[in-house]
Design a protein that fits this description.
Chain A is an alpha+beta fold and about 600 residues long. In chain A, about 35% of the residues lie in helices and about 20% in strands. The chains are: A alpha+beta (about 600), B mainly alpha (about 130).
Amino acid sequence: MTERRIARRILLCSVCLIVALAGLGARLAYLHLGEHEGIREQVRRTRHVRRTLTGRRGDILERRGPGCLMALDMAVKNVCADPMKIAEQSRMVDVASALSEALNLPTDEVAVRLSNTSRRFSYVQRFVPAEEADRIRAMKLSGVFFEDDRIRFYPHKNTLCHVLGFVNREGVGSAGIEQGMERFLRGTPGYVESEVNALRQEVYLQRIRQIPSVEGADVTLTIDENVQFVVEKALDAAMDEHRPKGAWAIVQRVKTGEILAMGSRPAFDPNRFFESDEDARLNRAIGYTYEPGSTFKALTVAAALNEGTVTPQTAFDCEHGMWFYGGKPLRDFHPYGVLTVADGLQKSSNILAAKVALTLGDKRFHEYIAAFGIGTRAGIELPGEEGGILHPTRNWSKIEATRIAMGHSVAVTALQMLGAFCAIANDGVLMKPYVIAAVTAKDGTELYRAEPTAVGRPITPDTALTMRRLLARVTEEGGTGKRARVENYEVAGKTGTSEKLVDGQYSSKANIASFVGFLPAAKPELGIIVVVDEPSTHHTGGRVAAPFFNWIATESVRYLDIAPPTLKLAESAGGREFAARSGRTGAN
Amino acid sequence: MVKQNRKRQGSSQGVFFPAPLVSVAMLLSAAALAYIWLGCQCEAVGKAIKGLESEQMILRQQLSNEQGKWAEMRSVANIERALVRNAVAMTPPRPGQIVQLRGRFYEGWVEGASYAARVARVDRPVSHD
């Protein structure tokens, strides 16, 4: 080849190269300088990503605060698959069998989830614990990948389930505290706007905007984990022993209205709320109204004592167990002749309670019942609280007051009934019950701090003291609630046995047995109510509910360091006065 | 007369490139290199931040998972199961064995003046005493 030919070829190549480069340059200039917003936007869109940063939901803590977690968010993984890729590699059977073994799922179920081979994404299993996901990752299955997710975790399982509630699959609180405090617990999501490279990896230098997520605030409850455990254990025992439809109990601090424990049976595991039925999810302590039966007599007597229409020594003829009023018979469980108000309450005479109520008149009686908080919601922070049923006096029949006096024709929740008894224990001051102690943001800022709130004073301190003494006699020898007695402590309370309405008629077989009281009677600290719905072995409150009251009270005073008062109620100033008026010693 | 070598003469003279221009070119090159170096540094820092961000996220996840496990382990029900499993019987002291120094349950706001003040403000809804 001659030098000339070589030179010509080099020239030709150079010209071609220059032309090509000039063409590319011209195209580049045309694209960059020309009006091609559409194309530019397309490129921007492809490279632009917006990633949401989920705000962690706040924790729920028991009364001792940090470290005592009742509910928290846990990181989990979603196991995802690319069915198209798996099918292309003809590894469907291998992947399905490996995943089914690792996830403990039937192989055919996994195969179904991978069956849509036209798709590039499919969930194999959601909410898989991180350790399990790591084991699957180690298998290096082609076409299987993972997605970060969060799940609400309740470490105590069904303990306190009705108070805590649960969070649904969308992360929204759907019952209990989770629902009631949603606005505090829910975190605020943030986001990151950025650009990605050809490998779809974020280029940090191209990060456009970053709004960090805000974690939800922590909610501290007034619930004491240990008292709660005692309550739940007692309720489980009640369910085993009496095989009832349900059982529920509350422990309240008398002077403040703080709820220390609240349990309900049947229960459910909030971690697996979707497997439970509505009946199990019902918090009977606040959401179930029932006719309180004889426990209501305490309110009747308190009202009459407060009005001065009776004294503890006022005697009534109990008609030997059968009394006709308004053309309708009223019976006592045991026939009695003449009883004083004090004895009538101790022995739980229906006829005496009815006659006491009549001394008040409908209007005054209604006023007192309403003042004790019956017929209106107590205002606890939990959703689903019922207000009970208390009809206005214009709808009362002639015999209505005689029936309400013994706890029929009126419906209450256990929370209301306990509140009324705590008012008697608290010198007549009715406190608002509450279950939230504080709400604290993650940076330590206190967003809310509960303060005890007095909502009314239905009776005077003197009447309250007299009532405490009268109710203390219920657990003494000869009273209906002696099974509720706690060694070394004086317990004041009242048994209740009410017949349930079945097909519009009161049933003698379907009962609600309850015991509500407080201790120590001389210086009340704890109010406790136990309700058992349709016990099958025994029926009365004294037989069914009182022993569980005893169980809860015994364990609670021991755990809470509540010392027995040095003076018994009868030996205190008010007690001596009461004994002098009634001509009794405190020891009967 | 000595014959002159034209070629040599020409090449020895070199291309004319003034010193100030060389300095400017060198400065520009240095600035370009510094820019590239800074760009690389920024990218490295960005990568490090991203790495730390993901590490922080993983650690937070691990922390919450461990907190959950710990809360589960120390639940009263679990402790009781552990006691039964290990045949440890615990009986509470009898009342006679307890020396009560001060009940902590009595402490708190109820003993304070604020409680009395709050209670005193409550209006009684029922007028008859």
